[in-house]
Design goal:
The chain is mainly alpha-helical. 77% of the residues lie in helices and 0% in strands. It is globular, with a radius of gyration of 18 Å.
Length: 206
Amino acid sequence: MAPPLPGPLAHLAPLLSHYGYWGVGAVVFVEDFGVPAPGETILIAAGIYAGAGRLNIVAVAVIAFVAAVAGDNVGYLIGRSGGRAFVHRWGRYVFLTPERFRKAEMFFSRHGGWIVVVARFVEGLRQANGIIAGTSGMRWRRFLLFNALGAALWVGLWTTLAYAAGTHITTLYDEITRYQLYALIALGVLAAALVGRRLLQRRHQT
């Protein structure tokens, strides 16, 4: 029997019960090129189901990882082929407004490839990650490397926590998201410090 999903996860129970792994893969996949879908929440819900013996945790993790990487690569192709004009024309239908896209692209440009990893954990950036990488001209192999690393960390974190915590995951999730902003600020300060150090080293060399 499927375990009751707590709070905001409850609406995903029919999807997981009927489609299982296919549901996990499809939702994660479409979220990663901008479609407003509950990719992270279905990943957590699937982890709870796996902890209750309804799904295999390894299969959930592998399917979610493949779907996440594939979805971001679709986003990359959209950004690379359609560019900003495509985003400005169609982005509003998936809540990617020109202003939101501009801010995300500026943030992306400042922090380089590692932002692809960090963006996986940030709502809004996760959905626009591949598109922004494509429009900004990041080389595909570089994007693929950082994208795969980010997907592995993201999938590994939420499937492991949900599998272990079970229905108590929502409390843990609330605590993690509460401190997410502080973690991002700390990463920003660290990145600025590294850039400043590199600039000072170049000045001394010249």
